[in-house]
Fold this sequence. Notes:
The structure holds 2 protein chains of 2 kinds. Chain A is of the alpha+beta class. Helix content of chain A is about 25%, strand content about 35%. The longest helix of chain A is centred in the first third of the chain and has 14 residues, at about 110-120.
Amino acid sequence: MSVHGRIIVHVGECRIDVPIDIATGATVAIIGPNGAGKTTVLRCLAGLQPLDDGRLVGVDGVWDDPDAGVFIPPQHRRVAMMFQQHALISHLNVRDNVAFGPRSRGVGTTAADQRAADVLARVGATHLISRRVTDLSGGEAQRVALARALAADPEVLLLDEPLAALDAATRPAMRRLLAADDLPTRMIVTHDPIDALTLADQIMVIDDGVLVQVGSPRELVDTPRSAYVAEILGLNPLSGVLTGDQLLIGGYPLTVGAHTVADGDVVAVVRPRSVSLHRSRPEGSPRNVWSTRVEAIERSADRVRVRLGAPLPLVVEVTEGGLAALDVGTGDDVWASVKASEIAVFPN
Amino acid sequence: MTSLRTRRRRTAPRTPIPIVVLAVIAVVFFALPLLALLQRVPWSDVGDLFTASAPREALLLSLLTSVIATTCALVLGLPLAWVLARTQLPGRHVIRAVCTLTMVLPPVVAGVALLAALGRRGLIGASLNDWFGIRLPFTTPAVVIAQVAGVALLAALGRRGLIGASLNDWFGIRLPFTTPAVVIAQVFVAMPFLVLTVESALHSTDRTVEDAARTLGASPWTVIRRVTLPAVRPAILSGLVLTWARALGEFGATVTFAGNFPGTTRTLPVATYLALESDVDQAVLMSVLLMVVSFVVLVSMRDRWTGAIGGRR
């Protein structure tokens, strides 16, 4: 029981060719840069964009097979799509928006309203039930949009950048909703590696219409197949030259842990959370310790990313509390350290 | 210091004077002929006029035909607007041009009002005539534009016309110079207002809302009925009001195609035009009648119907 097949479509001059294999109950994140074809993949799954070639099989049979002339339209697919800009129906109030799915599938008014009330309660939006859609804030509208998608009782829930339109204050609540265990199979399009790594059990990395790598967050973080994958996941890929356990990056030496990579040109990946920052030179064992400068401090969602300058251009992830304890700002000098075992190397 | 502070506190920038002056001229341009019309009304005879049967007959005919014409325009115009806005039909730009050509026809009330203002004895016209010898009304271009639609319909549906000949031979149906002919003439010139208004609204609706509805299980018909049409409802209503107003004021096509028979084809604009020859006071009164009816509809209904309407289903 799964959605599987291969999506081949042409959008403008871009050709998209992506294999699909979604296990029932899984949460799959599609990550990639703008214009990579992420949203198109969702639209093909929803039936809003017919395939040019390939074949899609859904939980209840073939959805789309251009060669066989089969195309199941969106309303018969039991797939609900949630759009980046919520796409609520502005002349209906919240209850009627959420009841729209059941009503469209022939459920009576009373039962559909009851279903709407139940689902709104589940996403914590009961108080919005009689509100006009145009009076909702961005966070409220997205919550209602999620309720509306769930009320349609879909086998697969397609979420296009569900967190992008939200501000930092409303994002954690929505992230918690999307991570709930009782949701149907989910496919989440995002450009934010943190969302992909925290929400999904499978991540598909797409670039230029092609699937670059697919795997669990653990697999992708531990063994990104290319520097591109490492970069899109925010993992600090660095090009260098390896000799035994010594890695030379732009003339700066690092010691790496056990590995099986041959000497020569390599890509090293340093995970943002494996780098420690200190006010003064740290005591103790870490072999890789260097002095550097804070170039920038960025806040994304509930995490803080500190960008370091020469000699190693790394992004370090710390907690808000950790940063406060460190008491440094942009332009300040800091000491950085990373354990040898935290540096992964891949042949380049 | 004080003047600086007040200047800084001004929130909206001052409207440039040339814009104000030209806008005022535009308003005067519209208002003056209408006021001139009101100024000419023989108020003492108003009672007599409404007891006479001819104007009442013409008004009822006008209301009847314009409402039927508006309904026809809705039934045919909505699908046309849909095709123009939502399909990739080749040549739809040409189709749009053909279907909206009749929009250029001027309503007759504006003509009478302009006559009251610019005619030889009009408010300004008298002065223009006296001082400069300029006479605006009754020039050839005005007539040509007004009658193109009527002649075209006659050629198509007249007894010897393209379709009319067959209709006559096979069914004994003669359209010209009947009340249906009045309706046809009105639909012909008024429907473009509905088509263009709705088409432009269909272009600007958010398609992702329709996509969302489809993934929620709505059939294409349900999407149209519950999502798209409600979204363009304000445009449909204002298009209907414009269409109706244009149909009510229709003259050129009506008089050419439908003629001028009391009770069957003599609409209020036609009756107004005829009265101008015999009884100017009556013409002025009927013009004011048309003007008031149109004005009331434009002001009240348009605001009420196009305003935000909430509520359930």
